[in-house]
Amino acid sequence: MAESNQGKSQNANAQQKLTQKHLLQKDALYQYILQTNVYPREPECLKELRELTANHSRGLMAIPPDEGQFLILLLKLINAKKTIEIGVFTGYSLLCTALALPPDGKVIGIDMNRESYNLGRPIIEKAGVAHKIDFREGLALPILDELIQNEEMQDSFDFAFIDADKVNALNYHERLLNLVKIGGLICYDNTLWSGSVAEAPDAAMSELGRNIRHYTIELNKALAADRRIEISLLPIGDGLTLCRRIS
Length: 247
Ligand code: SAM
Ligand code: CA
Prior knowledge:
This protein has one domain (65-245): Vaccinia Virus protein VP39 (Rossmann fold, 3-Layer(aba) Sandwich). Helices cover 46% and strands 18% of the residues. The protein has helices spanning 5-19, 27-38, 44-54, 65-77, 92-100, 114-126, 140-149, 169-179, 207-225, and strands at 82-86, 106-111, 133-137, 157-162, 180-189, 229-234, 240-245. Strand 1, helix 5 and strand 2 (106-111) form a beta-alpha-beta unit. Helix 7 (140-149) runs parallel beside helix 8 (169-179). This is Caffeoyl-CoA O-methyltransferase. Belongs to the class I-like SAM-binding methyltransferase superfamily. Cation-dependent O-methyltransferase family.
């Protein structure tokens, strides 16, 4: 069936936003990755959620589809069964996770805003993976502290994806080193913050952008110095740091 005009314009909108959101030197190269490797293999439910999210006023907050594809592969490579996500928004990265988990896998998704999650939830339900998701509404720090109180939760998670308020990233880190098992992965999103981490301190940027740049640089420094983890900072999406817990 021919695509409707509305569908076409939503698609163009999603495409335009993705053009603004990558760290490669040439947009054509990013489009090449999307067109040849990502879109042809993207599950229908992820496409639907990506397009719905692109039309949200804060749609750029979701990870891009090439990063989603990587996340799915990574979760499968490590045979993740029990994972946690901080910062859900409409649920795009959460749906990637739920799709990658085995039928009896579980992901705890934490967000202080249930409204945006509710936008994506029907698509997640239709995809048949909602039973793997335990959504917890609230501030992440107290929720993590509560999880730590339960001894069964300590050293039990295979994987964590952190994509919420950057000011608290190091607070999350200490708690996740308790919750994620030795050999498990903790992943921090936006660790290149649009490339601003390598720009001069007086470079032109918004107050909020400068603030987040500051906390991102502090996080990157702390992760690089932390001997409890092995790390790799990948230039995918807006920068993704993988940390493997080793002690
Ligand atoms: N991971 C999502 C994705 O890729 O589709 C995007 C998450 S968005 C960048 C960040 C989310 O973190 C927002 O939905 C916001 O409500 C949530 N958030 C921010 N600060 C938080 C906090 N202190 N506790 C819980 N959630 C928080
Ligand atoms: Ca992000």
